[in-house]
Amino acid sequence: MTCVQHLQLSSSLSSILNTLRLKESHDALFQVKCEGPKLVPFFKATCVYFVLWLPTSSPSWFSALIKCLPIFCLWVFLLAHGIGFLGAHSSARKILAGLIFSSLGDAFLIWQEQGYFVHGLLMFAISHVLYSSAFGMKPLDLRAGLSIGVVSGLSYALLYSYLSGPFTYLVAVYIALIGFMGWRALAGVQLYDDLWTWTKMSACLGAMLFMVSDLTIAVNKFCFPVPHSRAIIMATYYAAQMLIALSAVERQDEDDPKKIA
């Protein structure tokens, strides 16, 4: 093969790759537009929460309902894709289960001052395990794991001197679980190899926002008051859950032997 032919072949391959990337980008944008209307109830429920802004000093079943309503809407968002979709994608089922446990966690945290904080912590810990399983262990990406590990370690170091009793190890375990979830979400986004999809990017952003929300909760509860903490916590939390739920759309089940074949 001559140099000219080699250049022509390289140019052709480059054009084909660029065309495929443009097509993937167009398909991703189209998919996002298709999913948007299904999220309208979630956005309305979130607005209701922020407009009512019920006082946390007077916990009630009504305030629990209003707080959980946006997450209920995300259940409906996933269920709207059909039982067949959930049946064919184990990762989507795990994300739905994670949303269910998150709702229980939200309800428990309404009564956290009455002694239900640990119950809420347990529900969200289960959610993180389910989300981690949904995101999978491939690719491994140890660099992403190291980065998240450093952030998690620094977060615990910040909190450690303020913790006492069982919270010393409960918070450590919780940080490890949410950090692991963040690692598995971050590992799925391989920008340098162009091996990413909008659903994986959505999972990654959702996991990072979840970490921000929970760190704000911890600092505000155990360390010192964070200005506008409730607004920061709930805005990042609802955005995180929406993005994680959105990541389940068209997520491929890598463990399905039929698809591997």
UniProtKB/TrEMBL annotation:
GO terms for cellular component: membrane. Its main location: membrane. It catalyses: a 1-O-(1Z-alkenyl)-sn-glycero-3-phosphoethanolamine + H2O = a 2,3-saturated aldehyde + sn-glycero-3-phosphoethanolamine; a 1-O-(1Z-alkenyl)-sn-glycero-3-phosphocholine + H2O = a 2,3-saturated aldehyde + sn-glycerol 3-phosphocholine. Keywords: Membrane, Transmembrane, Transmembrane helix. It comes from the Eukaryota. Belongs to the TMEM86 family. This is lysoplasmalogenase. It comes from Acipenser ruthenus.
